[in-house]
Amino acid sequence: MLAITPPPSSPDDLLFARIANDLNHQGYTVIPNALPDTLASSLFDQVRDLDSSAYSEAGIGRQNDLTLNQFVRRDEICWIEGKSPAEHHWLQWTAGLQQYLNQHLFLGLFSFESHFARYQPGDFYRKHLDAFRGEANRRLSVVTYLNPGWLPEDGGELVIYDIDSDEEVVRVTPAYGTLVVFLSEEFPHEVLTAKRHRHSIAGWFRVNGSCNERVDPPR
Ligand SMILES: O=C(O)CCC(=O)C(=O)O
Ligand SMILES: [Fe+2]
């Protein structure tokens, strides 16, 4: 019998299909040069021009102990609110991805939050999970990088581990335009010490955690 597949309806659909397929089969995807050129360059321009005062020290969950925090992660972050054309474009693009994944994988993704992150030389983020089974409502983690000309000696790789065996699953160079998506509850991961300034965006798709008429805040 003839299989009838509808034509892709957006230029991003081929990429989104690859992401969906990888998530379905292995729970994560790593795609070099994935970000559309105009999106990557506008985000890069914004990050390059972003003043240091725009960033604040990153936290770890509800943990507010500064000393412990700095032992776990050293990066600084700036939440993306959609205020600039680049941020708006990013949020439109991730909304397209959300819609595609909901249609094809029935994930029920409900909202998205994301921030720019800046690692200075010497900064790292120790092994962690972005969400804990049954507790959090972060379902999918999305990371992309804005570092032209990143070299092996610059370090700062993202290392993703198997949650059961603790073996390394994949090691990602934070190269310009690379996109990583993984199931937040399934993959412990860490950022190795960066030897030069490292720019990224980290984001999370959530399911709706509302209950008892209390609306779940997106962050
Ligand atoms: O920048 C990366 O490669 C990952 C960052 C990360 O794990 C996080 O922000 O939760
Ligand atoms: Fe993480």
Topology record:
Blueprint: H1 13-26, E1 28-31, H2 37-49, E2 56-57, H3 66-72, E3 76-79, H4 85-105, E4 111-119, E5 125-128, E6 138-145, E7 158-161, E8 168-172, E9 179-183, E10 189-191, E11 198-206
Antiparallel strand pairs: 1-9, 2-3, 3-4, 4-11, 5-10, 6-9, 6-11, 7-8, 7-10
The chain binds 2-oxoglutaric acid (AKG) and fe (ii) ion.
Fe (ii) ion is lined by residues 128, 130, 141, 189.
Cofactor: L-ascorbate
Protein name: 2OG-Fe(II) oxygenase
InterPro entries: HIF_prolyl_hydroxylases, Oxoglu/Fe-dep_dioxygenase_dom, Pro_4_hyd_alph, Pro_4_hyd_alph_FE2OG_OXY
Number of strands: 11
Q: Quick one: biggest sheet?
A: 7 strands, antiparallel
Compressed to H and E, one letter per element, the order equals: HEHEHEHEEEEEEEE
Q: Beta-sheet strand percentage?
A: 25-35%
The ligands bound in this entry are: 2-oxoglutaric acid, fe (ii) ion
Number of helices: 4
- Count of discrete domains: 1
CATH topology label: Jelly Rolls
Radius of gyration: 17 Å
Question: What is the second-level CATH architecture?
Answer: Sandwich
CATH classification class: Mainly Beta
* Class per helix and strand makeup: alpha+beta
Q: Which oligomeric form is depicted?
A: single chain
In round numbers, the mean pLDDT is 89
Parts with pLDDT < 50 across at least 5 consecutive residues: none
Question: How far is it from the N-terminal to the C-terminal residue, by CA?
Answer: 48 Å
Fourth-tier CATH superfamily name: q2cbj1_9rhob like domain
Give the CA-based shape: globular
